[in-house]
Specification:
With about 190 residues, the chain is mostly beta strands. It is built from one helix and twelve strands, in the order ββββββββββββα. The N and C termini lie far apart (about 35 Å).
Amino acid sequence: MFMKDFTKLADVCEIVPPMVATEAPVLTGLMAGTRVETERGWQDVTALNRGDRIYTLDGGLARILGLDRRTAQVQAWHLPGGYLDACSDLCLLPRQPLLVSTLDDPQIGAAPFVLIPSEALSVLPFVTRRALTEEIITPLFADEEVVFANSGVMLRCPGVIEGTGPLMMDSFFPTLDLNEARAFLIRREARLWG
């Protein structure tokens, strides 16, 4: 994410995403209808192509080196517009990592942001679970990237070495497990609205 862009060499070689068993449940990726900011403006993830560039948290444009596309039946979490800076409703896969401001949570430490799995949002009363059949797109970058979805929700996308597997490799950002993330969100909500 904060490295030099070696993707200028991407035209010289073909980057192929690793194979993922089709029987494995799809737990991460961006669902159809999710909009990300590209150099051509905001676009649905279904319109993305290899070589497109997306604005990222570090302020730069990151080139997509590979795309994993699949259609799957999933249990998704519906986040209504207005929360976590989403301008419109957003559906998230259960383990899709979100980057969330800590709001100086004393139990987190000095980190301004933490990664949480989206299924931790289940502790919030306005987040609901939905069974959907949708196209899932996972853009793969040179290294992990955080992209903005539906204007302000920050979603982590993997690097090509990590691939689209269910487990997240080490991240630049502190990562909370499901129980830690749920407790953090409850504290965060209490601080915001308490």
